[in-house]
Amino acid sequence: MDNNLKREIILENYQNPHHKGLLNDKSYLTANMNNESCIDELNLEVKIENDIIKDIRFDGEACAICISSASIMTTTLIGKTVKEAENILENFLNMIDEKPYNKEILETAVVYDDIAKNPSRKKCALLSWWGIEKILNKLKALD
Predict the structure, then answer these.
(1) Is 90 exceeded by the pLDDT of residue 39?
(2) Nearest to residue 44, comparing CAs of 84, 80, 73?
(3) Average pLDDT, the chain
(4) Which of 14, 22, 63, 76 is the most exposed place for a label (fewest CB within 10 A)?
């Protein structure tokens, strides 16, 4: 993907984030995530019904990379099964760590494919994804 297009997608998802704003609905699983090396702090809410991610909400104070990554993550994972989400998450983490990954399943999240070139921004891109991982682990513990 062209670098200008990547920047455009990241900026659009920062300025007009999808699924931003919490519902405070007790039927959602939640996680609070913060990056100890900067101001990034996000709260996530995830609604899972019949093994399908029905909704993901987020809010908090964070940088452009963190907010845009959370926005892209929500649109990538909503409608997926838990198993599909786990596979996408694994591939996203591999991409960020410069390990082999399947870029086809990452959809728009592939815009972060070269974030490793700027190591200080990796945590920014990963924070919301780590939150989803935390929530999916909570879900497994409930089973």
Answers:
(1) no
(2) 73
(3) 96
(4) 22
**Distance (Å, rounded) from C-alpha 57 to C-alpha 96?**
23
SS (H, E, C) the chain: CCHHHHHHHHHHHHHCCCCECCCCCCCCEEEEEECCCCCCEEEEEEEEECCEEEEEEEEEECCHHHHHHHHHHHHHHCCCEHHHHHHHHHHHHHHHCCCCCCHHHHHHHHHHCCHHHCHHHHHHHHHHHHHHHHHHHHHHHHC
Distance CA 46, CA 27 (A): 9
CA 126, CA 134: separation in Å to the nearest integer?
12
For domain 3-142, give the fold: Sufe protein. Chain: A (3.90.1010)
Question: With b meaning 16 or more CB within 10 Å and e meaning fewer, what string describes 48-65?
Answer: beeeebebbbbbbebbeb
Question: Looking at residue 142, what is its pLDDT?
Answer: 80
Percent of the chain whose predicted confidence (pLDDT) is above 90: 88
Residue 73's CB is within 10 A of a number of other CB atoms, namely 29
pTM over 0.85: yes
User: What's the average model confidence in pLDDT over 123-143?
Assistant: 93
